[in-house]
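Progress against Task 2.4 (sequence-to-structure conversion) is shown through the following example record, which the project officer requested during the mid-term review.
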Amino acid sequence: MMAIPLAFYVLYLLKFIFIPLFAAIFVSVIFMPLVRKMKEKNVPGWLSITVCVSIIIGLMFIGIQVVKFSASEITHADPTFVITAENRFEEVSKAFTNYFAQDEQVAEESAQAISIKKAQDWFMENGPDLLTGIMGSVSRFLMFLFFLVLLLANTLDMQKLMHILIFNQKMPSVRTFLKIEKSIVKFIWVKFLLSLFTGIGFTIACYAFDVSFPIFWGFFTFAINFVQMIGSVIAVIVVTIFSIIEINAPGTIVTFGLVLTGVQVLFGGILEPILMGKSFSINTITVLIMLALWGFVWGIPGLIMSVPITVLLKTILEQIPDTKKYADLMS
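Structure tokens generated for the chain above:
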């Protein structure tokens, strides 16, 4: 009991190492079949690693271009939009506060306190901290590439590591590793495709209801949807609240929110469980606990990687007779 919190404290203390390491493990699992196939065709190891890293950098370049394009929607927005948005935001927040507080003066003060200008001032004051965070992200990305190259080059052999630390025999470790590889690859691809289609659905909905920055909101939804369960809820709430700035009719706002909810239910609530199948059965309570735990330990990266880590842990527990009951409890 003392060892468990100590282990999580070490994970928190050394998160600048463990976050890139775990991210590299999950990404390397995706490329392992490609590396094995290239090895069967006698392709040199350095060439297969170069191909995999080039694919990753190419995908990241495409992602940066999408971010740049979606951000250009905001930077090239009509100058009067900011003024209109601020006035509308203050008007709505004042009406909302007045409804609950039943005091116009309190409502006026609250509306001024949460104005867009205040948000802009906050970003100006916290600019240096944001820059420090960006530099930290760059260093973590370089460390991620370092671990990824080691994993793809088989310098860090996860199968042998499991054989030494967890299993006494070679066959259970090989079988477990292949099962983990299959589960994580399936989860990442399904999550990526469903998040992509969800983002496209949000973009189409924003175009249909004349909500500004549809591409930006589509990309925002795609990115945050990787946070299991919570991300989809945040996306619907944030985009619906933003629509209040431009949509005056309450019925239209409700309809817009229902359309967004329908998109999330279709892809996240119906298609995702079907595509994941029974091999990925983890109950809702386990997912929420893991989200809270890894979010507390590693922040946003922990929220994104919580489900793959849970899959890895559950698969290992299933292979050990003494811990199989805990894996069944997670299902």
